[in-house]
Write a structure and sequence with these properties.
heterodimer, A: alpha/beta, Rossmann fold, 5-stranded parallel sheet, 4-stranded parallel sheet, 14 helices, 15 strands, B: mainly alpha
Chain lengths: ~400, ~300
């Protein structure tokens, strides 16, 4: 009798622990929400999905008891479309984390929804520094860059290098105005002077007229507060009108490696820009980028792709550490653990959700300096993590006490 | 320095010249649209996509076959024109008896498909296409630095526009064409192959778009969306000039380029809108357009 009771107890314990083992298997679902058909499709798009997959594989999630499923969708750079996908993902499809989301207006909308549903939003593609400022949320991580960091990097470096008078070519909408405002502040703080600006229609096609106005202003630096095709067109036409040859410098305030590739070195040479990542920085970035390119039609990763990879890696580490996917616990863990990955090196996620890491000032190579199709940048300066991003107190985020 | 309305005169001349150069693009593109509408009664919404194809074919010829700018300037429009003729034969020719709206919907759909295909194949960042060596550099005109290539664009566009106008209004072939539009049955009775004439006309209009595309390749980014940004403005130009009026399209194209150029100096924020404001006014005052015949 005693024996049978003992047996029962043992088997019950075995059952219970077996149940516990089964629960150890954690299912997480990641949603990559970005632009898959428009202006930002090359710098985010399918590449971000590949980056997320690579992070899951490199983490060996399956061996660690984490089942990861990745879904993706096209938000077409429209906040309404992005919002309805985010709601559907959270409410019906069981998505735990939304990744990437370029286009600030969409990112701000997704951040609100994520907070409402208490899920996790790890942004890589969007620029607005409001994501970790006025509009910050306990559920948002902003990984790769923001307008403040770009303005700070390019603006102060150019002034230091003697470019102390500026003229802005600004896309006439919220993003352009913000970029101009942030950069002008940096320039003036560093002792430079803004001589003027011209606001061009968005999207624009012919910038020659605005470039001539910039030329006649006599400013040493022409700041391009625009993005995508507007920037590439402006740079192309600046080269045609001999502006760089005439001694004025161009500063691309939001220029991605894909833009430089599209322009070609002949046109883009000498352009100074700030990015968070470049494929040819060290062994870690080269190794990742080589594997990435093999899966992405030969195209090297942008900093946005790199940010998706690194943020997925950090998220999975936090899931492993907390042995669960509870959003509050995982967010706390992600902010507590320092970040460390082969692409961004060491860093941390601040209380306002800002991931801080080194930023880099690059200059586009001359054609004769380049040894390959993607050999595009040389590093001018490294901006240490502590100086690269807006000080915690200045953002106006209500999580900062 | 002399000033006009608070702007240095030299700067103003520069801006006017730039406006004139942009006008050259408007003129070449709206000319193709006007030829197609005037002679075929088709509102060709694929025009922007065909302009983009012109630029891309130029780029492909250089990248895959090593064929440079000058041969491409002839070859690319022919290739794009032939593709256009195939589309006309297979699809558009079935819609001549129906309302304009059907042609508009078909060509709009085609434009989306073509742009989608190029986007899929080549991404959205665009391709670089260098200015031909003979035309790189520029001349200092005293009031501005004029890149040689821009000068060439104006020259080439003027020649093509005048040549087209001459061919349609002053030659025997043009007379056949105009007659075939007025009364196809009668012209056919004289032994002229009207369907062939119509196909060739469509091909020619499309080739003009392709030509503008090659001209644009070295100065604008060659990307799949380049046409859709421009096509709406070009349509406004055609409406202002009078639908189907060849001379109207050319003159309006250049004139609106100038007006847009001036807006960029005095109030840049309105540069994208000014053409549409003018369009609205013209439609109110003279619904058939400045050069159009009252229906």
């Amino acid at each position: 009798m005693k024996l049978s009771k003992l047996l029962m107890a043992v088997s019950a314990a075995a059952l219970l622990s077996g149940g516990a083992f089964a629960q150890d298997k954690i299912d997480v679902k990641l949603g990559v929400l970005n632009d898959r058909s428009g202006t930002y499709a090359d710098l985010s798009g399918e590449g971000s999905v590949i980056a997320a997959q690579m992070a899951v594989e490199d983490f060996k999630a399956a061996d660690k008891g984490i089942n990861v499923e990745i879904v993706s969708a096209d938000h077409q750079n429209k906040p309404d479309i992005g919002s309805s996908i985010a709601r559907q993902w959270y409410d019906q499809d069981g998505v735990d984390v939304i990744l990437d989301v370029p286009t600030s207006s969409v990112a701000l909308a997704v951040a609100d929804i994520t907070k409402e549903k208490n899920k996790i939003f790890m942004d890589s593609g969007a620029g607005s520094s409001d994501l970790t400022g006025k509009a910050c949320s306990p559920n948002t991580v902003h990984w790769t860059y923001d307008t403040w960091a770009l303005a700070n990097g390019t603006g102060s470096a150019m002034v230091k290098a003697g470019g102390d008078t500026w003229f802005f070519l600004t896309a006439d909408y919220a993003f352009g105005h913000a970029l101009e405002r942030d950069t002008a502040a940096v320039v003036e703080k560093a002792g430079g002077k803004v001589l003027g600006s011209v606001r061009h229609p968005f999207p624009g096609q012919d910038f020659s007229s605005f470039l001539l106005q910039a030329q006649s202003s006599g400013a040493k630096v022409i700041g391009l507060a625009n993005a995508g095709a507007d920037t590439t067109n402006a740079i192309k036409q600046a080269s045609e009108f001999g502006i760089v040859q005439g001694g004025q410098k161009l500063a691309g305030l939001l220029t991605f490696v894909t833009d430089v590739k599209a322009l070609g070195l002949q046109t883009a040479q000498g352009l100074v820009l700030t990015e968070a990542f470049y494929w040819d920085q060290n062994e870690g970035t080269r190794e990742f980028s080589k594997r990435f390119a093999e899966r992405h039609g030969g195209a090297m990763p942008t900093m946005v792709h790199a940010g998706v990879y690194a943020s997925v890696l950090h998220y999975l580490k936090a899931v492993e550490a907390t042995k669960g996917k509870d959003a509050t616990a995982v967010m706390a863990k992600m902010k507590e653990m320092p970040t460390d990955d082969p692409l961004f090196g060491q860093g941390e996620i601040r209380v306002d959700g800002r991931h801080v890491h080194n930023m880099y000032l690059f200059e586009v190579k001359k054609p004769e300096e380049s040894t390959g199709d993607w050999d595009l940048y040389k590093t001018v300066a490294t901006i240490p993590a502590a100086e690269a991003f807006r000080p915690l107190a200045d953002g106006g985020c209500n999580l900062v006490k | 320095m002399a000033e006009i309305f608070g702007i240095p005169a030299a700067a103003l001349y520069g801006q006017l010249l730039l406006g004139f150069i942009n006008g050259a693009f408007y003129a070449t593109l709206s000319l193709g649209l006007a030829v197609i509408f005037g002679l075929l009664n088709i509102i060709n919404f694929t025009h922007g996509a065909q302009y983009m194809m012109g630029a891309f074919v130029g780029w492909m010829l250089l990248t895959y076959l090593g064929i440079g700018y000058w041969p491409a300037l002839i070859l690319a429009p022919i290739i794009v024109g032939v593709v256009g003729m195939v589309i006309e034969r297979l699809l558009i020719s079935r819609l001549y008896k129906l309302d304009h709206l059907y042609g508009l919907l078909l060509t709009f759909g085609l434009a989306l498909i073509i742009e989608g295909l190029f986007r899929n194949g080549y991404g959205v960042s665009g391709m670089s296409y260098a200015i031909p060596a003979e035309l790189s550099g520029g001349v200092n005109l005293g009031f501005m630095f004029l890149p040689l290539y821009r000068g060439w664009v104006v020259l080439a566009s003027l020649v093509v526009c005048l040549g087209t106008w001459f061919m349609i209004e002053k030659t025997r072939l043009g007379a056949y064409l105009r007659a075939a539009t007025e009364n196809p049955t009668l012209v056919q009775a004289f032994g002229i192959n009207v369907p062939l004439l119509v196909t060739l006309t469509y091909g020619f209009g499309v080739a003009l778009a392709g030509f503008a595309g090659v001209l644009a390749a070295p100065i604008y980014a060659v990307n799949p969306m380049m046409g859709s940004n421009l096509i709406i403005v070009v349509f406004a130009v055609v409406v202002i000039g009078g639908m189907g009026s060849i001379l109207g399209a050319v003159v309006t194209g250049f004139a609106l380029g100038l007006i847009e150029g001036l807006t960029k100096v005095f109030y840049p924020e309105a540069a994208a809108t000014v053409i549409f404001i003018i369009m609205a006014i013209v439609l109110l005052v003279k619904p058939a357009g400045l050069f159009g015949r009252e229906a």
